[in-house]
Amino acid sequence: MPERKTGGLDWAEARARLERMMETAAQAEALSPAKAREVLDARAQELARPPPSERAASHLVEVARFRLGGQMYALSTRFLHEVLRTPELTPLPGAPPLLRGLTLLRGEVLPVVELTPLFGRPVSGLGGTVLVVGLGRAELGLCAEAVEEVTQVPRDALLPAPTALAEVGDWVSSIHRDGTIFLEGEALLGDSRLVFDISDEGTV
What we know:
By secondary structure, the chain is of the alpha+beta class. It is built from five helices and 13 strands. The protein starts with a strand and ends in a 14-residue tail after the last helix.
């Protein structure tokens, strides 16, 4: 009969752990108090460690990689709501260069920005794709030429952001060995340069 798995609990693994605990208790009865404590501590450390699959997953971060102006960027998928292909943008006279315009998303107005001016480069005018990002709701659209892939990246492949990038803002979290700039979603969404009052009474 196959082993049961209920609610994500691996009964075979749980039973194996219990059997090891019973074996440990039996061994402890035949050992000196000091040695028994040593054996029990070792078993406790073993039980406290997550399964190998969980340990492996904790070393990976899932990101969407996108390209704009010859540069690759990556953002954690937990901030990504959807991807829009060539949405219609309404430009706003007098808006800052990075604000490419506004688009409608299911009846809600969404500001769409280009990140290149924040890196000291001119607006490329490129990007027919828009990544809709936000915390719990759609807050901002990021222009991109293309979304290359959604992938899992080992954390040990990420390097601290160079000083020049770190000075751009705390939303540049790290850089991949291949040159991809990793963005910190919460800091990006909280950057005052990317917060716009688009109400009738507000000014951009």
